[in-house]
Amino acid sequence: MEQMISTISEMIWSTPMLYLCIGVGLLFTILTRFVQVRYLKDMITLLFNGKSSESGVSSFQALTLALSGRVGVGNIAGVATAIAFGGPRAVFWMWFIAFIGSASAFIESTLAQIYKVKDKGEYRGEPAYYIEKGMGKKWYALIFAFAVLLAMSVLGPECKQIQLQQG
């Protein structure tokens, strides 16, 4: 069983996935006409303008909240490991992937805003919502939600535990 899971994992998380992620990131970068560069000045201006939304959350607070959910042990350990093994070249490739990956993040955030729903005075928007509302495939949204639940409750904590034990 362990060998089968290892084989499947190697097939999924190997070169084809790398090319798929880079290709999709480049496609989104081109389709959005380099949104990462076009709105850079606006992003910096909004970040430091000090204004708050109706709920009292400033742009800087929203950024730090979003980053706190994305940066974890894997990001820190992964960057350190990449630099240790790859040297300065690794930094270039991390910047390249971050640049094209930010177009994918922009698309995902935009879809979440377009298809968000208001529930008891609060907005909710995530991939399961825009899969259901945008694509009209509730069954696919349910499969996605179940996969996320499985990853967050079983697979994710175990990976972090193993990484902390080895680290």
Automatic annotation (TrEMBL):
Its main location: membrane. The chain crosses the membrane at residues 12-35, 92-115, 139-156. Coiled coil: none annotated. InterPro entries: Na/Ala_symport. It holds the Pfam family Na_Ala_symp. Belongs to the alanine or glycine:cation symporter (AGCS) (TC 2.A.25) family. This is AGCS family alanine or glycine:cation symporter.
